[in-house]
Design a protein that fits this description.
Chain A: It holds the Pfam family Hydantoinase_B. The complex is a heterodimer of chains A (about 625) and B (about 675). Chain A has about 625 residues and is α+β, with helices and mostly antiparallel strands. Chain A is built from 14 helices and 24 strands. Chain A has 3 domains: about 1-225, no CATH class; about 370-535, no CATH class; about 535-585, no CATH class. The longest helix of chain B has 29 residues, at about 200-230. Classes of the chains: A alpha+beta (about 625), B alpha+beta (about 675).
Amino acid sequence: MARIVESSTEPLAATDVDPVTLDLVENGLRNARYEMDEVLFRTALSPGIREQHDEFPLIADPAGRMVVGQFGLSIPDFLAGFAGDIREGDVLLTSDPYACGAAISHANDWLVVLPIYVEGRVVGWASMFGHMSDVGGKTPSSMPTDARTIYEEGVVIPPFKLYDGGRLNEDALRIILNQVRVPDWNRADLNGLVAACRTAARRVQEMCARFGVATYLSALDALLQRNYDAMKTLLHVVFEEGRTLSFTDYICDDGVGFGPYELKLSLTRTGDRVHLDFSGSSPQAIGPVNYYLNENLARMFFGIYMITVADPQILWNDGFYPLVDVTIPDGSYWKPRHPAALNARNHGIGRVFDLFGGLLGQTNPALLNAAGFSSSPHFMYSGNYSSGDRKGEWFQLYSIGFGGIPGRPLGDGPDGHSLWPSFVNIPCEFLESYYPLRIEKWETVADTGGAGLHRGGNGVDVAYRFLEPGTIAIHDDRWLTYPWGVNGGEPGARGRKWIDRAGGEREVLPSKCHDVPVRPGDVLHFVTWGGGGWGDPLARDPELVAKEVRRGLVTREGARRYGVVVDEAGAVDAAATAEIRGEARPERPVFNMGPPLDEILARCEEETGLPAPRRPVWT
Amino acid sequence: MSYRLGVDVGGTFTDVLLVDEESGSTWRAKTASTPSDQSVGVLNGIDKVCAEAGVDRAVIRHVLHGTTVATNAILERKGATVGLVTTEGFRQVLQIARSFVPGGLAGWIIWPKPEPLAELENTVEVPGRIASDGTIVTELDEQAARHALRKLKGVESLAISLINAFANDAHERRLAELAKEEMPGVEISLSSVVLPEMREYERALTTVANGYVQPQVARYVANLSDKINTDLSILRSDGGLAKAAAAAAAPVTMLLSGPAGGVTGAVWVAEQSGHRELLTFDMGGTSTDVALVREGQARIGRETKVGDLTVRASAVDVRTVGAGGGSIAHVPELTRALRVGPQSAGAEPGPAAYGKGGDAPTVTDANVVLGYLPAALAGGEITLDREAARAAVQTVADAMGLPSAEAAAAGIVDIVNENMLGGLRLVSVQQGYDPRDFALVAFGGAGPLHANALGRLTGAWPVIVPPSPGVLCALGDATTSARDEAARTVLRRLGDLTPDEFTAIFEELAGAASSRVAAAQVTYSADVRFVGQGNELPVTVELGEGPAGLAARFDAEHERLFSFTLDVDHELVNARATVTGERPRVTPIHLEKGDGDPSSARTGETRVYVDGDFVDAALYDRLRLRAGDVVPGPAIVTEMDSTTLILPGHAAVTDPSGSLLIRPAESLEG
């Protein structure tokens, strides 16, 4: 347990904060949080943060409760795992999920925490973590798809003082950077994380100077209370007393032949409180797909879904946490035992979107979206140049794939986009300028979005032609289970990967693989999945269907799923359309998850070219 | 005798400023804008100002024009039908964009994706491939290209944007030749001309935006040139002037012509009172534009934002905040927080106080309740309904449980000021500048009302309120210089470049830019990053310092912005040369000297609500203030097109150039 050293410990009296000052503090915190993002994006070198923006900022109150940020990561858990004094000027660093109660969830994430002092007193904490593109270990980018323990996943940094009273611990940093493949990346990204946290600290100190420490701290309490009060009201409106809602979704496989893993979430409101229960989920995975979930993060996800529609301008914080109880069974997919492997947890985090949508949408129609592009699939390519000016030089690419946003109550899901905030793709011209590859195609695949009144977004086919020998790695999912549709909408298409070898043969790749050798002239097709459809496809405007045929987003064949016949010129055949649409309509379920799981598994090899995984069992 | 004339077309009014180039005397006129054909309003304005000056229209040698024709075409989605030609495999470049969804976690649930400016059914792809180093991988398939072009029916404008065209424009140029044969008469925009920089989406988008506004702009400029029958220049987004023909060829460089006029006008006015380090703050009905000026030069950004569209074109680095006089205050039931904007009551129905059927509480209504606005606005065109304003603001007081409408109104004004402070921080603190080192120039209809409060929040003194804030844009148009720039992507490590190679890159660009503008001054800049970074920083280049000097300048900038540097090589990404012509001479206003006592301008008294209470405040007529007169706060200074509020504890000094300079009272003592 950390001991926090303060020269001023006299308690400050709580003061009444007028509502306008409260809104001013809220606004100031929001600006500081976006400034943290900006500092890191602009300075990072590693592609994971620089292009994918895989980072999460946070500003907390003196007790470590998040007052603004994107993730309710757990400073109290972090401090509980750190033995030593904390003083002004200290900056703490860790990458060990098991040492901080899963404040971070794999060893690629480096978490920086620093105390914010004003006049000898801790007035809060600034914290940020970012995904390092490489932290050493047995494979480039440090995410071996066959890992069974965290020891295979690169350097794991216990919580320690990177800066002690403002002085950098250079020896420790040298030891850490000696283990990674591209130390310049890690050094720049770490500098950026620290600079961002220091920026946040400065902004908090400025607010304390402007409003006074007592007023600032009382304002934080009031902001936390505001979330608490809002959530309390909302819970009563949305959830019936005593009724349990449940929803189950899947992770298709774990990289070492087991799957699908069931992810089950249940919710019950009793009085003012709700209980989120992850019981009934699969046991921890043998392979690296475990998603070690911090309880506060589960609360955070839940809260964001609840409030996004109610007051999008609210400053999201931890205030409502006391209203939410969370049960996560030990040894489950969500809480594996040390030293289980964790690197490929990106599917689990992403699937939380679908899980909460399916759960909360049952009583809140505004949140009932279909299943979307609920992951951030990775593609890696690395090697040494074999000739030319750069002969012998190491290259290492880490990039993210994008897919179909689901059909939504609002309308169609965008094609080839991201569910994650602030993620962006790496431009083709940037890739071709810095890596030995050429991109031959970058387009969405017609009909991969689920049919619906509101169409699911299409998945994307990116075709990479390799120009140098090297190895590639892929982290993807939804190759087996379907991105489901809702309210009568159909599921989207599943993802696929294959290599057309220079010699002419086609090789289907599993959705999780690494160290796959490639040669010049080989072409990889990385095809992501589509979003599910929302609402009855037979109710979609035939003219809109025809327009999408002309746009190449839906094929003429695909238009028939909407009960629309489109002629060769791309116009609606009104008579034929009326005929199809006049036929008796099948009963459409609220959730359309495709065929039953047993059937999916039985047809796996035939449909996907890949062997079916084996179901995991609790022992 | 020769005259020049600045003209700015706004949403409501067209402002004209006529300048005698020999004496520097000026005449101003204001006429109603004519949105269906802006040139009608411009001509009316010219006739009016000429009558006022007693001169014939023929004496005007130059017309300098800030126009929103291009901006409006984008905002109102009334541009041309654009066809887009891409490289095979990249037809959906605008559809996929950068895969980016704005907002926070779950933001995707509520994001309506805007339609691309070139529709997918009007996009074709052609076989033929160029590598990122410019080598040709596959020759252009001309037959397939002709076939693809023939599929584009009914397009009024064609954008050609091929992969890696920034490195080699051969295929784009050949396609343009084919397109001229296949679709004669259609305007063609090439990405290798519009934006020869890396990143295919941004380049395609910018090229398409150029094509989207081109036919309208070309028609407008030709029409206006014919009618005025004299030399016409258009204000570019970067604050320089371009000849009418050049502007019509590259209209994407003038999307922010309007705001750039305001900033250049503010720079000119502020210089007359000796201030060259400025934050500018232009508050209108629905939004506020802010910018930062150093050493009399507005900071130039590499992006232009119009509505939800962001293109890569140099522009005065204006940040827009969704906060203006018409911004609506609301209190979400769930959180009972006070929110102001981004919804706006606009001009119709407008604030409740306008009595045109609006009943939503706006910032203007709050100002009315607090006593900051006189009974009439815009020279009597709008009378204010105080009771309606009060009733509207009372709904906010009720929802929040505040004791009075005044308390709610003060809250609304505080929140909107805070939102604008956020914008000012974006251009100052977040760029590493301390706002206390700057003066704050406030203009736009609502700016002078909020200026003193923002001075207090930022510590930027003095707060400068220019005379006739309404014609500031026209003044900017009339007082700026001709400008052009040439740029290209280089992608070389600075460590690998010799000083000679370095100089050659920039001098070649200077040559290209000088062919279009008679150069009085050439400046160079570059976008540089550490090798491996994804974003560049714009840095000024001194040719004599060579590549090592540029690296050192970059390091200093990186240190200033982010508080650290790295020990890795630097990469020159984009090089740019900017050529600026002579700056015209315009003589400023020179007020008659007074004795410091403003009482002869005093027109009455009123009550204003400040810091929780009503206090007595004096009213002044701005036109009667003389140089050196000091107006102590609390006071309200009125003129035809704006109202200035001076808070208690502050005072405004009337500058000989006509500006009011507001400072804390204690700084004026002793």
